[in-house]
Amino acid sequence: MAGAFFQGWLYTTDASVFLLNSSQIWIPMTMAILFLCFFIYNKEKISSIGINAENLKNSIILGSIGGFLLLAIQTTLFVVQGKEASFTSFLLMNWIIFFFSALEEEVLFRGYIQTRLSGLINSQLVIGSINSILFLSIHYPTRWVVSGRVSFNALPAVYIISLLALHFFCDAVYKRTNCLWGLSCSI
User: Is 39:46 a contact under the CB 8 Å cutoff?
Assistant: First the structure.
């Protein structure tokens, strides 16, 4: 959450577009590195959070298929709302940003939180619901800081639907493969 609030604050400054775009790479990278350092410091096995080569091929295939399906869902939701869906506006920088954000989010939410909750709670439905609320909540702070107010309307409905679809898809792929690598392909 601290990284998301910091990123929101950056958007309220006179920072250059390059700095703002690159912050969407270095902030998630920094958070992921800090998390991995914490993990290693506590002498936990990195494979316990899905960072392994086991089921790598299945994870990447499922993640890629899911990525295209989620793109189709999001495009449909934009069209239904009367917004223009342009595939030419996706620049290489956007894909790089998505990859690093996905890596951070998947390591944290799928790899760590979901795995740890599975040791505490028997119901996968409850675990998925808790994790979906946490996953959705990480996307609010930046918008709150930029708008200057805390509101659950800060995220458009199409964005919330896309995030929840993404969450439950990634959840299913991770449960099936126990491998995070393909989930970065789904973003």
Answer: yes
Segment 139-183, tens digit of pLDDT: 888 888 888 888 888 888 878 887 888 888 888 878 877 777 665
Cα 20 to Cα 3: distance, rounded to the nearest angstrom: 13
Model pLDDT for residues 19-76, shown as the tens digit of each residue:
887 888 888 888 888 888 888 898 888 777 777 667 667 777 777 777 677 667 767 7
Separation between Cα atoms, residue 181 and residue 130, nearest integer Å: 23
Cα separations in angstroms, 118 against 9, 58, 121, 177 = 34, 22, 5, 15
For the chain, the three-class secondary structure string (H helix, E strand, C coil) is CHHHHHHHHHHCCCCCHHHHHHHHHHHHHHHHHHHHHHHHHCCCCHHHHCCCCCCHHHHHHHHHHHHHHHHHHHHHHHHHCCCCCCHHHCCHHHHHHHHHHHHHHHHHHHHHHHHHHHHHCCCHHHHHHHHHHHHHHCCCHHHHHHHCCCCHHHCCHHHHHHHHHHHHHHHHHHHHHCCCHHHHHHC
107/115 Cα distance (integer angstroms):
10
Query: For tokens 């096995």, what's the residue?
Result: 45
pLDDT confidence band for 108 (50 / 70 / 90): confident
What amino acid occupies position 80?
Answer: V
